[in-house]
Amino acid sequence: MSAAAGRPTDGAGESSLALACVMIAAGGLLLGMQIDGNGRLAGAGYAPLALGGLVALVASLVQLGRKGRLPRGPLTATSAAMSFFGITFLVGGVLVPGGSWMFWELVVLLWVLSRRRAREQFAGPEVGGAGLSLLGLMLVFRIWLTWQASRHSWQLFTVDVPLVARLPFAWIDSMRTLTVGAFSQQEMGFPPTGIDFPVTVSLWSAGFALCAVGLWMRGHAAREVEIERVHALIQVLPPQAALVVERLVPEAEWEALGFFGLPERRLARRIEGVVAERVQRQMQLEGALRSVRLLPPADAPGFPAGIRKALAEYRGEEEEA
């Protein structure tokens, strides 16, 4: 660990990034599986996957066009691709495979996931907390439909018609209840033999959790990789100079200052410019403080006394230095 950096750059961010990519790939595999009534493995179909890719593509283009940068290095480029596939897997895994529901789900997801983000995107598309919450609710909706289908109840739910349901006439049996959201086995993309509900839902839930956590981890790990890269560049300086640079430009401001995702040469120039600007500002502030003469009286109460005390302490520390 360098005294200038004050922290190790041991590649922990890269390890987390690689792990996140593996989690996304495993989650996508589980989301595309279902077990039929005979216990055999069956795919969930290509239509939801294709629509998920469409949503991911639109979200990627919107985020890249706003304040996006292409990732740098093979690992960050791979993680950006895995972020794209992670969004594809999540959307494809929660969409109802057919019917009018799919259209409205697709419209809502396009609106939520394709909104422009305030902060700069430098390592591929991202999904915020609102997007993940919406995807989770949609997964619950799909699981509910699957549960209904496993009971051979091919509708979302039924509602008893008031008064009519109590009449003792057999010829009105068909009018006693209203069916809401009818669907068919083919529309849901189920195998001809049906599905094993507990195992299939377990696979979907595990896949969704892996993809969602992997996307969240990938975003944090991508930032950690960029932090390590900036630290490594600052460590090239002599230890004392590097310490001054990191105090002038603290780590918490690096992303807001646009350091992440820049090429090495542009990053160095950007750091030079920020340091020069802040050194000049500090010198101007110190010059202004030295020239202050109109101090309030020592016995002044409240706000004037507080300002006078602060200026006196500053000058005292300056003289001791």
What does this structure look like?
The protein has helices spanning 12-31, 47-67, 74-94, 100-113, 129-150, 197-234, 239-248, 264-290, 302-320; strands spanning 33-35, 41-43, 155-160, 177-182. The protein has 321 residues and is mainly alpha-helical. The protein folds into 2 domains: 12-227, no CATH class; 229-320, no CATH class. It has a two-stranded antiparallel ribbon with strand order 1-2. A hairpin with a 5-residue loop joins strand 1 (33-35) and strand 2 (41-43). Helix 2 (47-67) packs across helix 3 (74-94) and helix 5 (129-150) packs antiparallel against helix 6 (197-234).
Our Rg estimate from Cα atoms comes to 30 Å
Find the structural class using helix and strand composition: mainly alpha
Helix-strand sequence: HEEHHHHEEHHHH
Overall, the morphology is: elongated
What gap, in angstroms, lies between the N and C termini?
A: 29 Å
Number of strands: 4
Put simply, the count of helices is 9
Number of domains: 2
Beta-strand proportion = 5-15%
Question: How many strands, what sense, and barrel or not for the largest sheet?
Answer: 2 strands, antiparallel
Side by side, the strands of the main sheet go: 1-2
The portion of residues assigned to helices is: 55-70%
Rounded mean pLDDT score = 78
Low-confidence stretches: 1-9
